[in-house]
Specification:
There is one protein chain. The chain has one domain (about 5-30, about 80-275). The chain is built from five helices and 14 strands. The chain is about 10% helix and about 30% strand. Strand 12 and strand 13 form a beta hairpin. Strands 1, 5, 6, 7, 10, 11 and 14 form a seven-stranded antiparallel β-sheet that branches. Strands 2, 3, 4, 8, 9, 12 and 13 form a seven-stranded antiparallel β-sheet that branches. It is mainly beta.
């Protein structure tokens, strides 16, 4: 049976800025934002803002709706929200290399998932077990103290750690992963995976002293709700299989929400099948 990587991509509704279909492909949007969104909107109105300094302070506009202190960049983003992910398979020499998602996995194969974001945001990854519940893979207590905040240029390995890997056993079937990337913390997920410790802010987020719940899990209802909150036609998807200048093969998938809205998000389903 040929391995199949099934992907369902969904995204939240976009603002008026994204009324027209994007002209760039997903990989281009991930690495090179469109010229008209590369500059903050406020820059073009700077003279007017100075004239109205007394009545409309610039500071209050920039921090309105901020998810957490120090995270204002997630609300003033001027670039699309993009995710790159790749499946890495261990070779005979113990090295992990990106493989074609359509590779046929067999019992004993060892793989990892590598995820990159093109801008600051919050990443969640869960896996559906044989019991039907979704187990938390990321955030992880071993990475950044359990924080799920990711910055531009950062990579996250799932499972984490030097020896982190998925191993296909003798039983054929499907391993399902669910990925969520948002500009702001996702309340429905945070309340399930983080403890109730920490100071609660007005927007529902918690302070830095929060900790991950041991053996955190999600139900199908939560996953289904997140899927329903987004719209697939607002996403741009591209699968890449090419060689770079140094001869290294890139096998990855790019998923981009062109929206620069503060509530932009991506939801991705991945089904890894083996025989």
């Amino acid at each position: 049976m040929k391995h199949l990587l099934a992907l369902t991509i969904l995204a939240a509704p976009m603002g008026m800025l994204q009324a027209q279909e994007p002209t760039l492909k997903a990989r281009e949007l991930f690495y090179t934002p469109p010229p008209d969104t590369a500059k903050p909107v406020a820059a073009a109105k700077e003279p007017e803002a100075k004239a109205a300094t007394k009545s409309v302070p610039t500071k209050s506009v920039a921090t309105k709706g901020t998810a957490k202190a120090g995270d204002t960049h997630t609300l003033s983003a001027s670039v699309p929200l993009g995710l790159r992910y790749a499946v890495l398979k261990r070779d005979a020499g113990g090295q992990y290399n990106e493989v074609d998602p359509d590779t046929s996995f067999r019992s004993g194969d060892r793989i990892r998932l590598k995820v990159d974001a093109n801008t600051s945001g919050y990443l969640y990854v869960v896996m559906r077990g044989s019991s039907g519940t979704w187990k938390l893979l990321f955030p992880s207590a071993e990475v950044a103290g359990g924080s799920n905040h990711v910055s531009k240029g950062e990579s996250r390995q799932i499972p984490s750690g030097e020896r982190g890997q998925f191993v296909f056993d003798e039983q054929a079937g499907s391993e399902k992963l669910f990925i969520v990337l948002t500009r702001q913390p996702e309340p429905d997920l945070d309340k399930l995976i983080y403890s109730m410790g920490g100071t609660v802010t007005k927007d529902g987020s918690r302070g830095s002293d929060r900790s991950l719940v041991a053996q955190a899990s999600l139900g199908d209802d939560v996953v289904s709700k997140l899927r329903a909150q987004v719209n697939s036609r607002d996403l741009v998807f591209e699968k890449v299989d090419s060689a770079s200048a140094d001869g290294k093969i890139e096998n990855a998938a790019y998923v981009v929400n062109p929206s620069s809205a503060p509530d932009a998000r991506l939801v991705v389903d991945i089904a890894l099948k083996h025989k």
